[in-house]
């Protein structure tokens, strides 16, 4: 549960025991996990990690899932070498920790990644997805980066960019009905603001009974009643990317 001592429980659910099909590479001044499909493609997706960083197996699992759907997927270290959050850390220090990792200040890294995808991977159509901290980063990029085609913000922390809604590109927002970090009132307000200000295609979808992290942080066999919503969230993400890339 979210409370003063635990303000961002992104580790709800299981950590996958998963090694990844891709490889780690150096991209400019940052490291990144890259996975490529067997057939050549000009479509790529940047995957933005949550507070647990670019090496979390769950996030790499999603990157590989994108690859099996025909995309080059890259998950860069947007903390640029700074330590990711650990579940064993003192949650009382979380707010100070996250202030040093601003989801709205990743533009330099995104530019480097875009150049890599275009020059090294032949990418011409590039989208972005992100989870929690990374979901907030997606909203930031959809507001300002002209080189991306579309984005999927998955339980992105709305409060980071709550006053900005003039999106440049089609954006899909995924939320869980029982998310303790992102109350439904915030989601309703986001929808209202998008309706008033947004001139591109967007969708806001709430998944019944789901908690924070359900798309990438839960193992499907833990809670059988959650499995359809986990699968639906992932399928919706892929369908949105397919539509706009």
From TrEMBL:
Tagged with keyword Signal: no
Signal peptide bounds: none
InterPro entries in alphabetical order: AB_hydrolase_fold (IPR029058), CMBL (IPR042946), Dienelactn_hydro (IPR002925)
Principal subcellular localization: cytoplasm
GO cellular component, one term: cytosol
A Pfam short name: DLH
Highest taxon in the source lineage: Eukaryota
Phosphoprotein listed as a keyword: no
Ranges of residues in domain Dienelactone hydrolase: 30-245
One example GO MF annotation: hydrolase activity
PANTHER family xrefs: CARBOXYMETHYLENEBUTENOLIDASE HOMOLOG
Recorded family membership: Belongs to the dienelactone hydrolase family.
The name this protein goes by in its record: Carboxymethylenebutenolidase homolog
């Amino acid at each position: 549960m979210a409370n003063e001592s635990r303000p961002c429980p992104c580790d709800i659910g299981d950590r996958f025991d998963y090694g990844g099909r891709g490889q780690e590479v150096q991209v400019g001044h940052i490291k990144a996990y890259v996975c490529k499909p067997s057939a050549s493609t000009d479509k790529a997706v940047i995957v933005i990690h949550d507070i647990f960083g670019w090496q979390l197996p769950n996030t790499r699992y999603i990157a590989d899932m994108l690859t099996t759907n025909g995309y080059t997927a890259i998950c860069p270290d947007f903390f640029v070498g700074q330590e990711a959050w650990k579940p064993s850390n003192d949650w009382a220090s979380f707010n100070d920790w996250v202030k040093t990792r601003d989801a709205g200040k990743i533009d330099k890294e995104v530019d480097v990644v875009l150049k890599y995808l275009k020059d090294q991977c032949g990418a011409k159509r590039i989208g972005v997805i992100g989870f929690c901290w990374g979901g907030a980063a997606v909203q930031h990029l959809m507001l300002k980066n002209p080189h991306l085609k579309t984005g999927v913000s998955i339980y992105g922390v709305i409060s980071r960019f709550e006053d900005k809604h003039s999106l440049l590109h089609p954006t899909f927002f995924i939320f869980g009905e029982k998310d303790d970090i992102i109350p439904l009132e915030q989601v309703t307000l986001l929808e209202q603001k998008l309706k008033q200000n947004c001139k591109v295609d967007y969708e806001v979808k709430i998944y019944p009974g789901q908690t924070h992290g359900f798309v990438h942080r839960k193992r499907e066999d833990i809670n059988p009643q959650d499995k359809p919503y986990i699968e639906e969230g992932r399928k919706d993400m892929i369908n949105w990317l397919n539509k706009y890339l």
